[in-house]
Q: What sequence folds into this?
C-alpha cells in the first residue's frame, strides 16, 4: 500500500493502521476472534505496563516463538518443485509396480534438491554432493527414490554414516568451517577410509559444483530389485538424465557466485519454472540378473561402485517434468519427508548394507524433525491414492479410523482388510549364514573405479580435480593427513598424486597406501569389465 492508501489510518502514537474492507478480510486470532488493533498491546494507560489479559498478544508471540523446527540432520538446505512422472512403455515384464504399467500415463511427483553438509542458510555453490530426492505419488502408495547427483557413496556400511557426517560438519570445538569440506576433520576421516576414494574423485570433480539443478544427473545409487507379477526379480539401478545435459561452473566462479548470490540455484529453478521453462529428466534403468552381477570383480551390493554404462547401457523408461513451484516453501519443501523404505509393490531392496541402514534411519529422523508420527497427514506426505488403516491418535491427528472398529479382524463388517493378491510381497530371497560383523571380501577393491573415473575425464577436468585436491588439502593443517591422502592418490593415478604432492610441497613423496586389492590389474580381469579396456 502506498502513502495515499485510504485504508491506512494514523494512530495516536503516529503508528499506521491498515483496516479491513474493500474485499480485504478481517484479521482474526487463530481461534477466529476478530482483531481491532494489531499494533498496540493492551496496557494500563497509554504509557503503563502491559496486561497479561491480552490474549491476542500472547497468542501471536507464542506462535512466533515456536515457528522453527529442527533442520534436517543432513541435506538441510534444499529446494523443491512439483511435477509429474510419465511412463514411456509398460515394464510389466520386469515389475508389477503400477506406475510402470501403462505407456503415456502421468503420475504426480515432488522433487527436493539439496546440498548435504551446509546448514539451512548456507550457500548454494558449495563443493558438495547434491541430493536428488523424488517422491512419486503412485496409485499403490508413494515411491521415494532418495538419490544424489553422484552415483556412488563415501561409505559401504550405514553404521559409519554418523562418523562421516560428523567429520564433514563444522568441528565441535570451533564451530567451523560451515558448508566446507576443506578442513582437517573431514580429510582425516577420508584419509582413514579408503572405501571413500571413488566418491572423493567425483567430489573433487566439476560434478560437485553444478551450474544449476537443471543441469545435473541423479542416481538411486544402490542396486534395487524390480519384481514382476510372477514374483521374478531383476536387479535395477536408477539414473536421472537431464534433458539440458550436464553443466558445471569452475571453482573460481563458484566462489564469486556464493558471495554475490548465495541463492543462485534456488533462483535458477524458481525463474525457470515461473517462466514456463520446465526442467526435465529421463528416468533410465540398468537391468541385470544374478549371473551378470556375478561376472564383476566388484560387488553390486557395494554402494561405492557403479556399473559402467559402457558395459551395461542405460535404458530410458520415462520422464520427470517439474512444472509448478510450491505455494509455500515451509509447507511443502520443508515438511516433505522422504524415506527410502517408501516403495510400492514391484520395487524391492537388495542387501546393500548402506541401503538397509537407510531404510531404518529415515523413519526415525522424520519423527524427530516433524515432531509427530502423524507426519503422513501433511498433504505433501500423504499418498494420493486411497488408503485405509487402523493407526489412530497421537499428536496432531488429522484423520482417525471412523466407526466402531479400530482393529481387525472384527465382527462389525467394518474397516480395511488384508489382500494377499494386491498387497506388497517382499521378494523371497534365500538368505542363510552365520550371524557376523564382517564385510565381504568382494567389497575390498577401493581404487580401480576411482582410477576409472579419473581417466574418463578430459584433460581440463583432470586439471580441475588436481586443483580441487590441492586447494582442499592446502586447508589441512596436519601434515600426516595430507601425506596419507597422497599415498591413496598413488593407488589411483601416479601423475595426479605427483601433481598434488608437488603443489603441497610434500617431499619425499610417501609410499602408496597399503591396500587389500590395489587395482583391478591385481585381479583376473572380468569378461564384463574387459570391454572397457578395448
Ligand atoms: C536425507 C540421500 C545415505 C540418513 C537425505 C536426503 C537425500 C539423501 C537426498 C534429503 C532428502 C530431502 O530432500 O528431504 C542419501 C543418499 C545416500 C544417503 C543418496 C547414500 C547413497 C544415508 C545414510 C543414512 C542417511 C547411510 C543413515 C544411515 C539421512 C537422514 C536424512 C537424509 C537422517 C535427513 C532426512 C530428513 O530429515 O528429511 N539423504 N542419503 N542417508 N539422509 Fe540420506
A:
Amino acid at each position: 500500500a502506498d502513502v495515499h492508501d485510504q485504508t491506512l489510518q494514523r494512530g495516536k502514537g503516529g503508528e499506521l493502521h491498515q483496516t479491513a474492507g474493500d474485499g480485504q478480510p478481517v484479521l482474526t486470532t487463530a481461534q477466529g476472534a476478530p482483531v481491532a488493533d494489531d499494533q498496540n498491546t493492551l496496557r494500563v494507560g497509554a504509557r503503563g505496563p502491559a496486561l497479561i489479559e491480552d490474549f491476542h498478544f500472547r497468542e501471536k508471540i507464542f506462535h512466533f516463538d515456536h515457528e522453527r523446527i529442527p533442520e534436517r540432520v543432513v541435506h538441510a538446505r534444499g529446494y523443491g518443485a512439483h511435477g509429474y512422472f510419465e511412463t514411456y512403455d509398460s515394464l510389466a515384464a520386469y515389475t508389477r509396480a503400477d506406475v510402470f504399467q501403462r505407456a503415456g500415463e502421468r503420475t504426480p511427483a515432488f522433487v527436493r534438491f539439496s546440498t548435504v553438509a551446509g546448514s539451512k542458510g548456507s550457500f548454494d555453490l558449495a563443493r558438495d554432493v547434491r541430493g536428488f530426492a523424488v517422491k512419486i505419488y503412485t496409485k499403490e502408495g508413494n515411491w521415494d527414490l532418495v538419490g544424489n547427483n553422484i552415483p556412488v557413496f563415501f561409505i559401504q556400511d550405514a553404521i559409519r554414516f554418523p562418523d562421516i557426517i560428523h567429520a564433514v560438519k563444522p568441528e565441535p570445538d570451533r564451530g567451523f568451517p560451515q558448508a566446507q569440506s576443506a578442513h582437517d576433520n573431514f580429510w582425516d576421516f577420508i584419509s582413514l577410509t579408503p572405501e571413500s576414494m571413488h566418491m572423493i574423485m567425483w567430489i573433487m570433480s566439476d560434478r560437485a559444483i553444478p551450474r544449476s539443478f537443471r543441469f545435473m544427473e541423479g542416481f538411486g545409487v544402490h542396486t534395487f530389485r524390480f519384481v514382476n507379477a510372477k514374483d521374478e526379480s531383476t536387479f535395477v539401478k536408477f539414473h536421472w538424465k537431464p534433458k539440458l545435459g550436464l553443466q558445471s561452473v569452475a571453482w573460481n566462479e563458484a566462489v564469486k557466485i556464493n558471495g554475490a548470490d548465495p541463492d543462485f540455484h534456488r533462483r535458477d529453478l524458481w525463474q525457470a519454472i515461473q517462466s514456463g521453462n520446465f526442467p526435465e529428466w529421463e528416468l533410465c534403468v540398468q537391468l541385470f540378473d544374478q549371473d551378470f552381477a556375478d561376472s564383476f570383480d566388484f560387488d553390486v551390493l557395494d554402494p561405492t561402485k557403479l556399473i559402467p554404462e559402457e558395459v551395461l547401457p542405460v535404458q530410458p523408461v520415462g520422464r520427470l517434468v517439474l512444472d509448478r513451484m510450491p505455494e509455500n516453501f515451509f509447507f511443502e519443501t520443508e515438511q516433505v519427508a522422504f524415506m527410502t523404505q517408501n516403495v510400492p509393490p514391484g520395487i524391492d531392496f537388495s542387501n546393500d548394507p548402506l541401503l538397509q541402514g537407510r531404510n531404518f534411519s529415515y523413519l526415525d529422523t522424520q519423527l524427530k524433525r516433524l515432531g509427530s508420527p502423524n507426519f503422513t497427514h501433511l498433504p505433501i506426505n500423504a499418498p494420493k491414492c486411497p488408503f485405509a488403516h487402523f493407526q489412530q491418535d497421537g499428536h496432531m491427528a488429522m484423520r482417525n479410523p471412523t466407526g466402531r472398529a479400530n482393529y481387525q479382524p472384527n465382527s462389525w463388517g467394518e474397516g480395511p482388510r488384508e489382500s494377499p493378491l494386491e498387497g506388497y510381497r517382499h521378494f523371497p530371497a534365500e538368505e542363510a549364514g552365520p550371524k557376523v560383523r564382517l564385510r565381504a571380501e568382494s567389497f575390498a577393491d577401493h581404487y580401480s573405479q576411482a582410477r576409472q573415473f579419473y581417466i574418463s575425464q578430459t584433460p581440463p577436468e583432470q586439471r580441475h580435480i588436481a586443483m580441487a585436491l590441492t586447494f582442499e588439502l592446502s586447508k589441512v593443517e596436519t601434515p600426516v593427513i595430507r601425506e596419507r591422502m597422497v599415498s591413496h592418490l598413488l593407488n589411483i593415478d601416479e601423475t595426479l598424486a605427483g601433481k598434488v604432492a608437488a603443489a603441497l610441497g610434500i617431499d619425499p613423496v610417501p609410499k602408496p597406501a597399503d591396500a587389500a586389492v590395489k587395482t583391478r590389474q591385481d585381479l583376473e580381469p572380468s569378461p564384463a569389465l574387459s570391454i572397457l579396456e578395448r
Remarks:
- The pocket of protoporphyrin IX containing FE is lined by residues 72-75, 78, 112, 114, 131, 133, 146-148, 153, 158, 161, 221, 303, 336-338, 354, 357-358, 361-362, 365-366, 369 (CB under 6 Å).
- The chain has a mean pLDDT of 95.
- The chain has 14 helices and twelve strands.
